[in-house]
Design a protein that fits this description.
The complex is a heterodimer of chains A (about 550) and B (about 110). By secondary structure, chain A is mainly alpha-helical. Chain A has helices spanning about 10-25, 30-55, 80-100, 110-125, 130-150, 155-185, 190-200, 205-225, 230-240, 240-265, 275-295, 300-320, 325-355, 370-385, 395-405, 410-435, 455-475, 475-490, 495-520, 525-530; strands spanning about 60, 75. A two-stranded antiparallel ribbon of chain A has the order 1-2. In chain A, helix 1 (about 10-25) packs antiparallel against helix 2, helix 8 packs antiparallel against helix 10 (about 240-265) and helix 12 packs antiparallel against helix 13 (about 325-355). Chain B is built from four helices and no strands. Classes of the chains: A mainly alpha (about 550), B mainly alpha (about 110). Chains A and B meet through helix 5, helix 6 and helix 9 of A and helix 2 and helix 3 of B.
Chain lengths: ~550, ~110
């Protein structure tokens, strides 16, 4: 029974989104209620799945009961469960913020697009099929195109076009990569691919290595790794605040895909060797430097936050690029931290923008804004956490990454120096936006936007993210233990492969055994059973189809 | 046939890449379409090029076309068609809003 819940994080938003569009179209209150309820349900669901995933081997859901590798499977392991929870938390917070700040009424269909976005992201985290991953990428991208231009406006639409074109090019590259891999391995099921790629003869790896490298480029585009980070600053700065906060998880979809694919299909001990490590490590280092220096060069608060997101992606990719268990555990901890803090900073930036009136986020002198002290405190906490200063989780995360990369002094130096640059950058931004206005204390504060529903709700949503950071710091011990088990599971791909492929063989043998017994004993029932054979997945002719694709040259 | 198909993929992709590097939205959209045509033909060829064979394997049949790339291509065509429609609408919106169809942001636009 439990296995059917695995598909629920995809199905629930997929059902709710059209309902919101078609049924509640003109009633914003109902939309808001449905959206919040849907997000809360997703969060509960994700937590239940996480508990279930941490107590056993990966669970597999066969869509339409087709046996892998022919059918599409969803796989729930510890990593995907973690990402589901993270996504659900972010979704709920963003919806609450959008309601409180009035963003959801500045354009059409915010709530349904949010649900579609959740569907795409959850699907990408759950799927065990590489082509299905492409499809879910497209689902989440098309929803994000809508969210990105929510509210309209010249700058937003223009950067929206850039964002769409960049990602379309990325999707095309994804198809090229999948085609190349399919041409070599003859399958796209991830577990099956892992087996097939492992069995390739050592002198026949050139093409699969091309496929692996192309795939890396695609995920690097999503994760905004150098040299593919160009789309991110303009997109995130011009996106509506809550949407930018949600996009904090979108770069993590790329990171997740890199971790998944290059531990399962192309492990460092496998056919393609250290390819992933060799590509990722320099890219991560440059990403880190560019991101943190970008904070220093930013001309407004929003830009500073977007560059810090790029920098944090660089930091976590440094950890993942090691492809060791310890570094991956540290990277996972840092990833959770970075998602929460990036989202919090985007929300804080939006709160500031709403309150600074015509001055927006630019680093110029402006009068004191409403809730000035509160916002300054929020920004201070967020900036500390993002730069990796004690006491918050950013410090712990960076400490763990440094600990796991002991001995690589160049890497240590880069992380430490860029942290210093980030601190200087944030100090510069913060003092301009939050300290200088005290010099103009007698000027009147700008008015709030009129469509704001409840500033208290917007503040609470932002505060919830900061509370999450504090929780992550306080519970660092148990969380790290959990991450280590997750990394251990990732670095034993056999667990994943067995869960997906092992079940199919066992079921096929079982069916064959039952079939033989009945053949001997009861011929009447046997005849009836044969008529029903189509409904029995193991007896389905597809299951006996030999491998095509790779073996197809015989057909020439 | 191999030469024909592979050169078609190459030409489509090269033309597509050239077009998406242009500065106006219209050539970029055309470039995206060309690129997606290129990748569709490429996907089609990943199941090996076989002529006049059914895409189904039955007992006793030894030569057949791999059906999976055909399903993949179908999915890819649908998705790229939808995405092209989205990018056309978006480009149109940006053109109406901004009054020009340049794809790059100029200094003032980048920072709102």
């Amino acid at each position: 029974m439990m296995e059917h819940w695995i598909v629920a994080p995809v199905v629930l938003p997929a059902m709710l989104a059209p309902l919101i569009v078609l049924w509640m179209r003109y009633d914003l209150v109902t939309q808001r209620v449905a959206s919040v309820l849907g997000m809360s349900a997703l969060l509960i669901l994700a937590i239940v799945l996480m508990v279930s995933a941490s107590n056993g081997p990966p669970e597999v859901y066969r869509l339409g009961d087709w046996e892998p590798p022919y059918g599409i499977v969803l796989v729930l392991d510890r990593l995907s469960a973690l990402m589901l929870v993270l996504n659900a938390i972010l979704g709920l917070v963003v919806v609450l913020y959008a309601i409180g700040s009035g963003w959801d009424r500045r354009g059409w269909h915010f709530h349904s697009l949010m649900q579609f976005q959740m569907m795409g992201i959850n699907g990408a985290f759950l799927t065990g099929d590489a082509f299905n991953l492409f499809v879910f990428f497209e689902v989440l991208l098309i929803a994000s195109y809508g969210l990105m231009i929510h509210g309209g406006g010249k700058a937003r639409l223009k950067s929206g076009v850039q964002y769409v074109v960049y990602n379309l090019a990325g999707s095309t590259l994804f198809l090229f990569a999948l085609g190349t891999i399919y041409a070599v391995a003859g399958t796209l099921n991830m577990a099956d691919l892992a087996q097939k790629v492992g069995q390739l003869p050592a002198d026949d790896t050139a093409l699969i290595a091309v496929g692996a490298a192309l795939l890396m480029l695609v995920f690097a585009v999503k994760a905004a790794l150098v040299p593919f980070q160009f789309w991110l600053p303009a997109t995130y700065t011009n996106a509506p605040g809550p949407v930018a906060a949600l996009f904090a998880i979108m770069t993590k979809v790329g990171v997740y895909a890199i971790v998944r694919v290059y531990t399962l299909i192309f492990p460092i001990t496998g056919t393609t060797g250290t390819l992933a490590h060799d590509l990722l490590l320099p890219a991560a280092l440059v990403t880190l430097v560019i991101g943190m220096v970008g904070i220093l060069g930013a001309r407004d608060l929003g830009r500073a936050v977007t560059y810090s997101v790029i920098g944090s992606v660089g930091t976590m990719m440094l950890a993942f690029a090691q492809f060791t268990q310890g570094a991956t555990a540290a990277g996972l901890y840092y990833m959770v931290h970075s998602t929460l803090v990036a989202a919090a900073l985007f929300l804080i930036a939006d709160l500031v923008r709403e309150r600074r009136g015509r001055w927006g986020l630019s680093l110029v002198d402006a009068p004191l804004m409403r809730n000035h002290g509160m916002l300054a405190a929020f920004f201070f906490i967020g900036a500390l956490a993002m730069a990796g200063m004690p006491p918050l989780s950013g410090f712990l995360g960076k400490l763990m990454i440094l600990d796991a990369t002991r001995g690589q002094w160049g890497l240590w130096a880069t992380v430490l120096i860029t942290s210093l640059i980030a601190i200087v950058g944030f100090a510069r931004v913060g003092s301009q936006v939050f300290w200088r206005p005290y010099g103009f204390a007698d000027e009147e504060s700008p008015d709030l936007p009129k469509d704001m529903l409840s500033p208290a709700l917007a503040f609470s949503a932002t505060g919830a993210l900061i509370a999450g950071l504090v929780a992550l710091t306080v519970l660092a011990g148990p969380v790290t233990g959990w991450m280590q088990s997750t990394a251990a599971q990732l670095f034993t791909p056999a667990i994943y492969i067995d869960a997906v492929m092992g079940g199919a063989e066992a079921r096929a043998q079982e069916a064959a055994r039952i079939g033989q017994q009945e053949h001997g004993h009861m011929e009447v029932i046997d005849e009836m059973r044969h008529e029903n054979a189509g409904s029995d997945p193991a007896a389905h002719p597809q299951a006996e189809t030999p491998q095509t694709g790779h073996d197809a040259p015989a057909a020439h | 046939m191999e030469v024909l198909v592979s050169s078609a993929i190459g030409v489509l992709t090269a033309a597509g890449i050239y077009m998406i590097l242009r500065l106006r939205t219209f050539p970029v959209v055309i470039g995206m379409s060309l690129l997606s045509y290129g990748v569709n033909v490429f996907l089609f060829a990943t199941g090996r090029l076989v002529v006049n064979q059914p895409p189904i394997l039955r007992d006793g049949v030894t030569s057949y076309t791999d059906p999976i790339p055909q399903a993949l291509v179908l999915t890819a065509i649908v998705i790229s068609f939808g995405m092209t429609a989205v990018v056309v609408m978006l480009a149109l919106g940006a053109f109406i809003e901004a009054g020009n169809d340049r794809i790059d942001l100029d200094e003032s636009e980048g920072d709102q």
